[in-house]
UniProtKB/TrEMBL annotation:
Protein name, as recorded: Maltokinase
Alphabetical UniProt keywords: ATP-binding, Carbohydrate metabolism, Glycogen biosynthesis, Glycogen metabolism, Kinase, Nucleotide-binding, Transferase
Reactions catalysed according to its record: D-maltose + ATP = alpha-maltose 1-phosphate + ADP + H(+)
Aminoglycoside phosphotransferase domain segment(s): 242-368
Domain of life of the native organism: Bacteria
Limits of the Maltokinase N-terminal cap domain: 11-95
Pfam families assigned to the protein according to its UniProt record, in alphabetical order: APH, Mak_N_cap
Native source organism of the sequence: Microbacterium terricola
UniProt keyword DNA-binding present: no
Length: 455
């Protein structure tokens, strides 16, 4: 097993979903389970490994197909390594044996098990017994998880199945919130198709079995673009985005209203807002260590946070990592995706009731990212026109949101300002770790947002 762990530890840091960038993992095997495979050459296994170098410890789900090296046809990019002579490990989602096994579980149900661990499929739609092994391909792009797309068949629409790379105790909020919203008939959600839940021994507590979500399947909207693409094109062409942004504000408010109806809400108490401020300060100190350019803004940033200390919003479940890339432009309007919350926040914080303005702030930042990305692509482009596009989109989004909630929304609200600034600080850390050439986008925003609200 040591050679298997060494092989995984060498490969994981190169994966986008590996959280502790710049540090090799310190892996401990927690468990595994094997799927039955039709292909005699393939052993289909999911490893649960804990990265104990991370604080708190991060548990990863690593599906692996082991094949005799002489039979491997997978592209080198998807090969994990050869832990033993003659055997090659392939990244499971890129191998048909794992794809067929996982999709079979999520669409058809059943349980697979390993030492003190299980994985159980919970299909929500009746399976087509004649379908045979489901084929699917990995969705390309920069994602926190790995998603498989299974094309439509005569008996079912196309399906996207997200494999959660980081595994936590309890139901993943992506599944929890979207199944509740879909069940309540929200038109802004992709209908759920099924999910996979697992049990394993808690890495932090001897002999205690815990459970959590492993994968989530939803209807896949083929051939549609996300709001990021649509907005980027509109901004680059100089086409107004006001109507779309207004409808996006309305859809956002509609989802917030549904979540407030479906899950408990409560007024914030002083300790809640102190908790927000504590998170902002903690994040700022990480950002100061990882992105030193922020240091000159420190006092101004803290002043913006201090202005929000008397805010008392109603707390409710929210999206938590809301940006243009999380919304699809379908023929029936905007559809929201990925309710997992901020990947960098511990899960226990992500499932707590929160301020709905956090999502509003996330989307406002995303409009600014459109301008930033255009400037990165074409530094010679006059900044003023793109800025005017962003300002109009922001205003339209806020107007649509306020209209649908029926509550006026002050664009200078101190809590909104603090949340927007905190999101920019989050983005500075995120970009420094994942896309260093993009870090100028949040850095410029931090300068602007801190200067707009002087002490
Ligand atoms: N139901 C869907 N229909 C079409 N595309 C989807 C669907 N769900 C996700 N996508 C695409 O996959 C991308 C990643 O999905 P997301 O849920 O954000 O995963 P991650 O947690 O890995 O970031 C989205 O930005 C979107 O482009
Ligand atoms: O992968 P996730 O969807 O969970 O989100 C993470 O990655 C996003 C980048 O892909 C990051 O979003 C940032 O970049 C977007 C443009 O690519 C921009 O629209 C967002 O406003 C900006 O925050 C997100 O923060 C991160 O959690």
């Amino acid at each position: 097993m040591d050679s298997t762990l060494a092989c995984l530890a060498a490969w994981m840091p190169r994966q986008r979903w590996y959280a502790a960038k710049g540090r090799p993992p310190s892996l401990r095997l927690i468990s595994w389970w094997d799927f039955p495979a039709d292909d005699q050459d393939a052993r289909v296994r999911t490893y649960l490994v804990a990265d104990e170098g991370a604080l708190p410890v991060v548990l990863y789900q690593v599906p692996v197909v082991a094949r005799p090296t002489t039979t491997v046809t997978a592209s080198g990019a998807h090969v994990i390594g050869s832990p033993e002579p003659g055997t090659t490990f392939i990244d499971g989602p890129h191998d048909p044996a794992y794809v067929g096994a996982l999709m079979g579980l999520v669409l058809g149900g059943g349980t697979v098990s390993g030492p003190h661990a299980t994985a159980t499929g919970h299909p929500l739609v009746a399976a087509d017994d004649d379908e045979g092994p489901v084929s699917a391909h990995v969705l390309n792009g920069e994602q926190s998880n790995t998603s498989l797309i299974a094309p439509a068949t005569a008996s079912r629409p196309a399906v996207i199945c997200k494999i959660f790379r980081q595994v936590n105790q309890g139901r993943n909020p992506d599944i929890e919130l979207q199944t509740a919203l879909a069940g309540a008939g929200s038109p802004h959600i992709a209908p759920a198709v099924g999910w996979v839940e697992g049990t394993w021994l808690d890495p932090g507590a001897a002999q205690q079995t815990v459970g959590g979500s492993l994968a989530f399947a939803q209807r896949f909207f083929s051939g549609v673009e996300d709001a990021w693409r649509v907005a980027l094109r509109a901004a680059a062409d100089g086409t107004p985005f006001d109507r779309e942004a207004h409808a996006l504000g309305r859809a956002t408010a509609d989802v917030h209203l549904s979540l407030a109806h479906l899950f408990p809400t409560r007024p914030a108490e002083p300790r809640d807002v102190d908790g927000f401020a504590e998170t902002w300060r903690r994040r700022l100190s990480i950002a100061l260590a990882e992105v030193p350019a922020i240091a000159e803004r420190r006092t101004a940033i803290e002043a913006v946070y201090a202005r929000a200390s008397s805010a008392r919003p109603t707390l409710q479940r929210i999206h938590g990592d809301y940006h243009l890339g999380q919304v699809l432009h379908t023929e029936n309007g905007w559809v929201l995706l990925d309710f997992e919350g901020e990947p960098m926040r511990p899960i226990r914080e992500r499932v707590r009731p929160d301020a709905a303005l956090r999502d509003v702030a996330g989307m406002l930042r995303s409009f600014d990212y459109v301008a930033g990305s255009i400037r990165l692509d074409d530094p010679a482009r006059p900044a003023a026109a793109v800025r005017a596009w962003v300002d109009a989109a922001r205003a339209a989004f806020l107007a649509g949101y306020a209209e649908a909630t029926g509550d006026p929304l002050d664009a200078d609200d101190p809590l909104l300002a603090a949340l927007e600034l905190d999101k920019a600080v989050y983005e500075a850390i995120y970009e420094a770790r994942n896309r260093p050439t993009w870090v100028t986008i949040p850095l410029r925003a931090i300068g602007r947002l801190a200067a707009t609200h002087p002490a």
